[in-house]
Amino acid sequence: MSGLFHQSLDGRPRSLASQGSWSSRLVSPAQSSETARLHKTHACLLPVRFLLRATISSAVAALFAQNALGQLRTRNVVLIVTDGLRWQEIFTGADASLLNDKHGGSWESQQELRRKFWNDDPSVRRKMLFPFLWDVVASRGQIYGNQNKGSVAQVTNGMAFSYPGYNEMITGHGDPRINSNEFGPNPNKNVFEWINASSEFRGKVAIYGTWSIFKDIFNQPRSGLTMQVGWDLPAQGTRLTPRQELLNDFYRTTTRLDDEDVWDSFEQTTLLDYLKSARPRLLFVGYGETDNWAHSGRYDLVLESARHVDDFVRQLWDTMQSMPEYRDQTTFILTTDHGRGSGLEEWKEHGIEQKGSENIWIAVMGPDTDATGEMSGVAPVTQSQIAATVAALLGKELHPAFPDAAPPLHRAISIKEPHHN
Predict the structure, then answer these.
(1) For residues 60 and 415, is the Cβ–Cβ distance under 8 A?
(2) Of 91, 169, 285, 394, whose CA is between 20 and 30 Å from 219?
(3) Is residue 133 classed exposed, middle or buried when 0-12, 13-18 and 19+ CB atoms within 10 A define those classes?
(4) Phi then psi for 139, rounded to 5 degrees?
(5) Which residues 6+ apart lie within 8 Å of 10 measured at CB?
(6) Which residues, including other chains, have CB under 8 Å from residue 209's CB and lie 6 or more apart?
């Protein structure tokens, strides 16, 4: 274990100074001398937003016209985020130049890594890493962000690190005030608390995430949302079941790599238990290891954790499809909060100093999403569109309450004509 911690500390973020922690998500660009470049990056993304609004405004108007959302079959939405997972791995699989110790920091042999993750055909290779995404999501839904096929998905916050990214996806717009992961409670109301305030959804909205900072991002004291994040014990009270006691013991006694990030597998277990008992209708799920292992310089564990996330999503989908209140009535939105750099070194980092960190990916699957698969030759989409997409899928128009929010992903919502017998 001492070697693991040594490796982690050697791989800590360098370009965006993280004070006192190896974790990428404590990076504070406010401490960087690159403020001017940050604003330049943000300005470069503005045309994407204006083009986006001009391109789809008529489609959005049609979506909400004549109570069209009343015809939606989606009654439940799950937004799933795997932190800092690049679009390159999503669409082309493992990077051959990083399947080694020299550049990928891998502890497994190159031969073993290639056996598990490599094929010369990118379409086969990506399926080795993400079998559920490419066997199920791609065949039933839509995946945006393969820039090799003319599909661009980007953040618009000009920061390209975690807190600004999560804020953008849950509020519908970036906020230049949020320039640090240690910003504190989010002043912006988000789509989850807005929906939770309605009588139809009150008490049926929940946040499950590995990162303790989600308490600030979703502003738990103000929003009052049900939350299980970080290393908080999953079961409270004095009359706990043997299973609850066991899970609490795991949280208490497992050695931590990071005091703010619980292991993805721990969150998955508590999430499935909560799902079966509480039956939420709107759910946020955040996994963190894909980002943390990248910052530790362990590409082998980035791949392992990415494959695990794919399987966690499969578990969650299969579980929900086995329950009558979710079967054929649930939409999954999968994405990441930011991209990363590329090459032999900058894959470990992200932010304004790492070119390409603004590039992300978005996937949508559910009963109201056409099975278009991998998108190609389409207009750019942005992280800021996720909030309105969540609302629209649940029959709600976000714009009147959030005038700065970007419109929904109109291609991801297809209103079907009702069937008449």
Answers:
(1) no
(2) 394
(3) buried
(4) -85, -20
(5) 297
(6) 227, 228, 229, 230, 267, 284, 285, 286, 287, 288
* Phi-psi domain of 67 (left: phi exceeds 0; alpha: psi -120 through 50; beta: other): left
pLDDT at 416 over 90: no
pTM score, two decimals?
0.88
3 state SS of 326 = coil
DSSP, res 142:
E
pLDDT grade for 259, boundaries at 50, 70 and 90? very high
Q: Strands 142-144 and 373-374, how do they pair? A: parallel
Element (H, E) at 59: helix 35-64
Domains in the chain (CATH in brackets) are: 2-412 (3.40.720.10)
Give residue-wise pLDDT tens across range 328-352: 999 999 999 999 999 999 999 999 9
DSSP designation for 255: P
